[in-house]
Write a structure and sequence with these properties.
Length: 278
């Protein structure tokens, strides 16, 4: 999937690029597999902002993906569709009973491809099977953290994990961040990387394009008033900041480790921070 550049007809267009949508074969989603996203985003049930810099944006339906396909399901890819809620493409598939589902589209997936969700399925791209039956070194995506809970790892565009080793009831999986984590060998995973791998190379180019995505402007803390941020106020920058970098609520940031007393630390074999230069 190449990235298409715009002609520099305006300053905003210069350097702007977009995705190639030639691989998408359907223009409209299945009505039974979508739902309306209600209410303002980034706010809780009390109306308070819980995630900053979110709001507005183009209207969009949420696509209901099936991350918990049960073994014994045979699928046929009907269409490749665009999903405005995620970076990856999605595939409309039909099972042996005629039911329609949405799944993540693996790299190279096209209409007409046959997929299998089975304990002893072949190690072919798009097939889904437990880690215990996948050879070491295989590239995978849509990995379960807990058997039967559904895919949680490696779901973004171009993302992939790798099965490193297996021992007894646990498998070691190298995640996209570089972390090596223990996952049950009974957990399901799909073969191959996620498609739309050129998504990360798209240049936004203009502020308005970001607003249509539902992302509002962000400003630095040092340009705020003292009442709005710990970095705010001052004398125009004549003196250096009198405290280490913090969040608007006073929590240290920029390298300060906030992971404390996590029960899942025992499943991390190798941290994503190991081997990086300080």
């Amino acid at each position: 999937m190449p990235v298409k550049a715009y002609n520099p007809t305006t300053p905003a267009r210069r350097g702007m690029s977009t995705q190639d949508f030639d691989a998408i074969t359907a223009k409209k989603p299945v009505k039974s597999l979508i739902k309306i996203k209600k209410g303002p985003v980034a706010r809780n049930n009390q109306g308070r902002i819980t995630t900053r810099h979110r709001g507005g944006g183009a209207r969009r339906y949420y696509r209901l993906l099936n991350f918990k396909l049960v073994p014994g399901t045979a699928l046929s890819v009907e269409q490749i569709e665009y999903d405005p809620n995620r970076s990856a493409r999605i595939a409309r598939v039909k099972d042996q009973n005629g039911g329609l589902h949405y799944i993540l589209a693996a790299k190279g997936m096209k209409p007409g491809k046959k997929l299998v969700v089975e304990e002893e399925a072949a190690v072919g791209r798009g097939n889904r099977l437990p880690l215990k039956n996948i050879p070491n070194g295989t590239v995978i995506h849509a990995v379960e953290l807990q058997p039967g809970k559904g895919a949680q790892l490696a779901r973004g565009a171009g993302a992939s994990a790798q099965l490193v080793a297996k021992e007894d009831k646990w498998a070691q999986v190298r995640l996209p961040s570089g972390e090596i984590r223990l996952v049950s060998v009974e957990a399901m995973a799909s073969i191959g990387p996620v498609g739309n791998e050129q998504h990360q190379n798209v240049q936004i180019g203009s502020a308005g394009r970001k607003r249509r995505m539902g992302i509002r402007p962000t400003v630095r803390g040092v340009v705020m008033a003292a009442a709005d941020h710990p970095h705010g106020g001052g004398d125009g920058g004549r003196h250096r900041m009198a405290r280490p970098p913090t969040t608007p609520w006073g929590q240290k940031t920029l390298g300060y480790k906030t992971r404390r007393r996590k029960m899942t630390n025992k499943f991390i074999v190798r941290s994503r921070h190991q081997g990086k230069r300080r």
